[in-house]
Specification:
Chain A is α/β, with parallel strands linked by helices. Chain A has 14 helices and seven strands. Chain B is α/β, with parallel strands linked by helices and about 325 residues long. Classes of the chains: A alpha/beta (about 400), B alpha/beta (about 325).
Chain lengths: ~400, ~325
């Protein structure tokens, strides 16, 4: 009932497995620079002189599966927010190719610094998607161990994580390792000083980091034009490293370009800025209303470039996947959605004393004191209840 | 070396040197810390001996310095970063407060943030704007950070060792006008805990509590008061987060009077926190309200006026008189 009802209310947001009307895909404005593209919106393979991929049918089906399951997870989380089960959700709808393409380019020993929207990258890293929901449910601020999957915690302050990625990459280089680091951020973050500083530091120290900017055209209600007067990938030139713009709705191109940038980093040639030119089909988060700040025609024009649809067209056209594959994937999607729903609803209320846990690694006298006060305050209610079965006496305790 | 007489700046330098020697994961980072050895020469000679990979001159970008230190800590390094002056820390304040302080809690304890941020702070050196501030309360207010300030060469040496070994982020405020004050440093003595207050001078009539640059002023005040027949106890808090209230309480229960002295503005300052907590703990022992001596609610003034702004001997003794008059 969840996703179907959401889809029914907002039919434009979930069309991954349906054929959209065969409109001609809108091209970038004439002033816009060309994109690296390997798969057209119509699902035709094209070649690019600098970037190539040669994937097996199984790998292609795998990318398709990743995108479909990621979208299904995202739709479930959106529905759960609407049902009051999550306090907030940041949907990735429309950005599946950018995330799966770049995510599948990574090696296990690479390290990812996400924003709060990289659900598809988390998927590629093997992070259980339900782990991503704790902070949106309000039971923790992240909570997973970043070193388990080399996937750092979600960072909410815009752009901060690009510096963490740069520092981590400086450490990788010091260690003499050939791992690479990838930092995700958006077009809005490109205006932040921290992103500029991370470009400076990574260039100066030749850090093995890939800056993966998902230009989804909107920073909440502010269009890219309010962030920059030049195409974002061109920023890299001023810092002395390459920038490339890739069709962010083309999973093959995102894979090829990211892989190339990661290899460059591994070879000790320093950072690369990848601008994935894509579109956020939904709201920035469930708290905003995109109908207030952008035109339906724009959103519709991007629907024709849907990343899932174009790969499906290719798979079908080439006979790389049969009906049984799509049916099985549909079932897998529903199973995933059901599991996510159940796990979220079953997330336990955190223990009240968790407020005082992990504030410091080595402890802190004030935290110990306040924990003890709070424990005593809570115990006072239990004592009162035990004494006469009445409600707490309204003690003003605490400190 | 085991016992040596060193200026505070040199004691920190020796401490950093020892940390670099002992632990290959320790890094020094900051603006001008390499060839120049820092504008106060606190890192003098370290890059020469440990190389550019361990003692790292950074771009002039404070947020970048702290933000990349966080990333290096995530990779297993223990960065010790220098913010060149107190008033320059604010571009990095976001990284310190929203990231560094919260990372351990955000990960439910799965990751640690052993980052030390060295900040030469306070006035009294005739500097220009932004070079004389005391922003310690802004950091002590933030859960997840520890904040310390040594007042002697020995503490400078040992507290730096302890700060670097801590798995928590430590904001290490260095009293810049005391950099050249000499004191004995025993590099083999076993130091007390990083956050324990120290009785710098024993007395019976009133407790003066201070830290960093004001400890010396309070000791001078106690000497002057002695001539007037008054016995003042001087407590060097050493740590502003956490504060060793137990040691302070013991002292106040003995003397029954407390004056807190710091350079930072009194309004919302650490003196306010200390006054409130000691009033709670020692309400029935106190013979007078806890008084505070510190800076005014005004931007740190031009150098020609800093003697009016900074608490000196007379202002401290005036507060002592007021307390004893109750």
């Amino acid at each position: 009932m969840t996703v179907e009802s959401t889809a029914a209310r907002k039919p434009r947001r979930t069309s991954g497995t349906k054929r959209a009307s065969a409109k001609k895909a809108p091209q970038p404005k004439s002033s816009e620079p060309p994109l690296v593209q390997l798969l057209t919106p119509e699902g035709e393979r094209v070649e690019h002189p600098d970037y190539a991929v040669d994937l097996t049918p199984e790998e292609l089906r795998g990318l398709y599966r990743d995108m479909v399951l990621t979208r299904r997870f995202d739709a479930e989380a959106t529905a759960l927010q609407r049902q009051g089960e999550l306090g907030l959700w940041a949907s990735l709808l429309g950005q599946e190719a950018a995330q799966i393409g770049s995510g599948r380019a990574l090696r296990d020993d690479d390290y990812v610094f996400p924003t709060y929207r990289e659900h598809g990258v988390a998927w590629c890293r093997g992070v259980d998607p339900t782990n991503l929901l704790g902070m949106f449910r309000g039971v923790n601020h992240g909570g997973w161990d970043p070193s388990t999957n080399n996937f750092h915690l979600y960072t909410i302050v815009i752009g901060s994580q690009t510096l963490h990625a740069t520092g981590y990459a400086m450490g990788v280089a010091k260690d003499g390792a050939d791992s690479a680091v990838i930092a995700y951020f958006g077009d809005g973050a490109s205006s932040q000083g921290d992103v500029a500083e991370s470009f400076t530091f990574s260039a100066v120290y030749n850090a093995p980091v890939v800056f993966f900017c998902q230009n989804n055209q909107w920073a909440i209600s502010e269009p890219t034009e309010k962030q920059t007067r030049v195409p974002l990938y061109q920023r890299a030139q001023g810092y002395g490293f390459p920038g490339v713009r890739v069709d962010g709705n083309d999973v093959l191109a995102c894979l090829a370009v990211t892989r190339s940038a990661l290899e460059r980093a591994r070879r000790g040639e320093g950072p690369t800025l990848v601008e994935a030119f894509t579109y956020r089909m939904g709201a920035h988060t469930t708290s905003d209303d995109p109908t207030k700040y952008r035109a339906d025609e724009e959103t519709e024009s991007w629907q024709a470039k849907d990343p899932i649809l174009r790969l499906r067209r290719y798979l079908e056209r080439q006979g790389l996947a049969d009906d049984a594959f799509f049916v099985a994937l549909e079932e897998e999607s529903e199973t995933l959605g059901k599991r996510v729903r159940e796990v979220v609803r079953a997330m336990p209320q955190p223990d009240s004393l968790a407020i005082f846990d992990h504030v410091y690694a080595d402890g802190h006298a004030l935290v110990d004191e306040e924990r003890a006060q709070f424990t005593a305050y809570q115990a006072s209610f239990e004592d009162a209840d035990a004494a006469d079965g009445s409600e707490g006496n309204g003690s003003e305790g605490g400190n | 070396m085991s016992v040596q007489k060193l200026p505070i700046a040199k004691a920190i330098n020796e401490s950093l040197r020892k940390a670099l020697e002992t632990d290959p994961k320790v890094l020094i980072m900051g603006e001008d810390v390499g060839k120049l050895g820092g504008v106060f020469r606190v890192t003098d000679g370290l890059q020469k001996d440990f190389g550019e990979g361990r003692v790292i001159d950074t771009p002039l970008a404070e947020s970048g310095i702290v933000g990349t230190a966080i990333g290096l800590a995530l990779r297993g390094y223990r960065p010790v970063v220098e913010i060149q002056f107190d008033g320059f820390v604010f571009p990095a304040y976001d990284q310190i407060v929203t990231q560094l302080a919260k990372m351990h809690a955000r990960a439910l304890g799965k990751i640690k943030m052993p980052v030390v941020i060295r900040i030469p702070y306070g006035g009294g050196i005739g500097a220009v704007e932004h070079h004389s501030e005391s922003p310690e309360a802004l950091f002590a207010h933030v859960a997840g950070l520890k904040v310390v300030s040594p007042s002697t060469a020995s503490d400078a040496y040992w507290m730096m060792q302890q700060a670097i070994q801590s798995d928590d982020p430590v904001i290490f405020f260095e009293p810049k006008r005391r950099y050249w004050d000499k004191g004995e440093v025993n590099t083999e003595a076993i130091p007390g805990p990083l956050h324990r207050a120290r009785v710098a001078r024993e007395g019976t009539d009133l407790t003066l509590a201070a830290y960093g640059p004001m400890v010396k002023v309070c000791l001078e005040a106690a000497t002057a008061a002695e001539e007037e027949g008054r016995s003042l106890e001087v407590l060097d808090l050493r740590s502003m987060s956490p504060i060793d209230f137990d040691t302070l309480q013991t002292s106040v229960e003995k003397t029954r009077r407390l004056v807190v002295v710091h350079e930072a503005p009194v309004f919302y300052g650490s003196g306010a926190e200390i006054a409130a907590r000691i009033t709670e703990r020692c309400f029935y022992h106190l013979e007078a309200p806890v008084l505070r001596v510190g800076g005014y609610h005004a931007p740190y003034p031009p150098a020609r006026l800093e003697d009016d702004y900074l608490p000196g001997l007379d202002r401290v003794l005036d507060a002592v008189d007021r307390s004893l008059a109750y």
